[in-house]
Amino acid sequence: MLFFISQYSLDTLEQPSDSGSYPDEIYQRGINSAHYVRGEIQNRISEEVRKDTLSLCRLIKEMTFEIMDQNMEDSHEDPALNRHLNQVAFLAKEVGEQLGLNETDLKILEAASLIHDVGKRLLNPDYSKLDRKLTDAEYAVVRKHVDLSLILLNGIIPKDIYNVISQHHENYDGTGYPFGIENNHIGLLSRILRAVDAYQAMTSRKHNVGRKKDGIMTSDQALEELERGSGRLFDPQVVSVLKRISSSYESSGNILN
Ligand SMILES: [Fe+2]
Question: Could you confirm whether domain 16-251 is CATH 1.10.3210.10?
Answer without folding.
Answer: yes
